[in-house]
């Protein structure tokens, strides 16, 4: 099984990097059953996994996209020091996303066949 790691650095809103990264993750999950999708959220992207996001009708919602991705089998981890630095440590997170470490991120990088950065 091929393993693809998608690293997201940008905040969920303001740019479309998180949006496009999740679009890619969802398409991979849809079209390629032999691919394991892994997503690591760092820096401002840590807030992508905060539960309870509300957006105006017609706008993309990163929380919904992330939930869909997780439900399709993607693994999602969030940089622990990034959540601490942004005061997100005790915030409710999207179910299935978990706080992680640089050591786990490093293991994912070494174990992945491809690493994509957004």
Characterize this entry briefly.
The protein is of the alpha/beta class and 118 residues long. It has four helices and five strands, in the order E-H-E-H-E-H-E-H-E. The model has no long low-confidence stretch (mean pLDDT 96).
Structural features, described:
It is globular and about 35 Å long. The model has no long low-confidence stretch (mean pLDDT 96). The protein has a single domain (2-117), classed as Hypothetical Protein Ychn, Chain: A (3-Layer(aba) Sandwich). α1 runs parallel beside α2 (62-71). Helices cover 35% and strands 23% of the residues. Strands 4-3-2-1-5 form a five-stranded parallel β-sheet, sandwiched between helices. β3, α3 and β4 (97-100) form a beta-alpha-beta unit. The protein is an alpha/beta fold and 118 residues long.
What order do the helices and strands come in, and which of them pair?
Elements: E1 2-8, H1 17-31, E2 35-41, H2 62-71, E3 75-79, H3 80-85, E4 97-100, H4 102-111, E5 114-117
Number of strands: 5
If classified by CATH, what would the architecture be?
A: 3-Layer(aba) Sandwich
Fraction of residues in β-strands = 15-25%
Low-confidence stretches: none
- Judging from the principal axes of the Cα atoms, what is the shape? globular
Radius of gyration: 13 Å
SS content category: alpha/beta
Number of domains: 1
Average pLDDT level: 96
CATH homologous superfamily heading: DsrEFH-like
State the share of residues found in helices, binned by percent.
25-40%
Characterize the main sheet.
5 strands, parallel
CATH class: Alpha Beta
Q: List the helices and strands in order.
A: EHEHEHEHE
- Number of contiguous helices: 4
Strand order of the largest sheet: 4-3-2-1-5
């Amino acid at each position: 099984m091929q393993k693809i790691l998608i690293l997201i650095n940008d905040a969920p809103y303001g740019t479309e990097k998180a949006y496009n990264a999740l679009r890619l993750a969802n398409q991979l999950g849809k079209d390629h059953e032999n691919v394991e999708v892994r997503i690591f959220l760092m820096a401002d992207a840590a807030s992508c996994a905060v539960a309870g996001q509300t957006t105006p009708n017609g706008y993309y919602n990163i929380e919904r996209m992330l939930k869909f991705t997780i439900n399709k089998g993607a693994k999602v981890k969030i940089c622990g020091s990034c959540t601490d630095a942004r005061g997100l440590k005790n915030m409710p997170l999207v179910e299935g996303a978990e706080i992680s470490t640089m050591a786990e991120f490093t293991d994912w990088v070494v174990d992945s066949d491809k690493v994509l950065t957004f």
